[in-house]
Amino acid sequence: MQRFMLILFIASELCYYLLIAQTGVVEYFSSNLFLIAPLPIGGVIGSLLVSYINIENKNKIFIFLIIQLMMSFVYPNFNLITLFILGIAVGSLAPLIVNEIKKTTLIELGLALSISYVVGTFLFNYEVSNRGFIAVLLTFVTLVSTLFLPNSSNKKELNTTSHSLLIMVLWVFLDSALFESLSRDTTISVWRDGFTMEIALFHVIGVFCALYFNIEKNQKELFILTLFALSYLFYFLREGFILAFIYPFVISYYNVVILQSIRKKDFKTITFYMIFIGWLASGGGLFVALSNLILFVPLTLLIAIIRVITKDYLPNQTKEIKYV
Question: Distance (Å, rounded) from C-alpha 288 to C-alpha 185?
């Protein structure tokens, strides 16, 4: 029972972030950066302050979920104050969710992420102004699941290859810029062009490939950047069908890698990482999309790929020169 509730807890809150905080609010306010600014500002403050609240984590989760539930009843009629409060709730819950992921096994983490991606994909086309009941339902499910969360962490460790904060921020930025551009492009929109089944399937494939196929750190970073490069290429070529396979796969894949990388950090470090990964990087991607600067993103991607290749190649060359 506890293991199932842990899966449900993670999946439902991730769905809330995707359908309400990330897409619902932004689309409802027509991507007006001034109007939606209180949400990320509250998110940064919430992520920063949650580690300084000296009560048990389960109680923190319960308190911020109550606040989230109250704000969900307001959705979508937010003002600057209620958006700020929602941001504090979601921002505080983000590191707490990551902290609970420490308790999962491989299959539990895979199931939780798969459920969130599949549900999020199938509900993505639901009219944003009518998602109020979805917000309330998802928060209620998460709230009930909190009562049954296990207390102990998973004894069998998952793959915990550590990646730098900079590369993880880059992945989220690349994803956010492409996602926000895709959602606003009337000539190509993989979510609204009848590819729902393909998207959901390759989200799940991406999750389990990341969990069960281990490759070296630099190769993994290069693999993710290459998949992003292909995603951008097919976006510019307006190849929605191919994009519906590649892009969901890389979204799921890199998110699993990030979770595996930060899950062993202490709680304060997780809160610090979530500020950069969850808010600043995604906010930067949104700004790029709204400013029509996406044509410049491939240059950043190319520099990153060259950097990873160079990092992987030069040490080997140095060794060969040394022993010649």
Answer: 14
CA distance 200 to 244: 9
The span from the CA of 304 to the CA of 282, in Å, is 18
The amino acid that residue 95 corresponds to is P
**How many residues comprise the chain?**
324
Specify the residue for token string 């990341």. 210
Per-residue b or e along 57-86, where b marks 16 or more CB atoms closer than 10 Å to that residue's CB? beebbeebbebbbebbeebbebeeebbbbb
205: pLDDT confidence band, cut at 50, 70 and 90?
A: very high
For 240, half-sphere exposure in the C-beta direction (CA atoms, 13 angstrom radius) is 14
- State residue 323's pLDDT score: 32
Contacts of 257 (CB under 8 A, 6+ apart): 161, 163, 210, 220, 224
> Under a CB-based contact definition with an 8 Å cutoff, are residues 265 and 164 in contact?
no
Give the model confidence (pLDDT) of 146-173 as tens digits: 999 887 666 555 556 788 999 999 999 9
- Condensed to tens digits (0 to 9), the pLDDT of residues 63-92 reads 999 999 999 999 999 999 999 999 999 999
CA distance 230 to 112: 27
Q: Specify the pTM.
A: 0.90
Give pLDDT, residue 317. 45
Q: In this structure, which amino acid lies at residue 10?
A: I
CA dist., res. 5 & res. 12, Å (int): 10
Instruction: Please report the DSSP string for 57-96 in residue order.
Output: HHHHHHHHHHHHHHHHHHTT---HHHHHHHHHHHHHHHHH
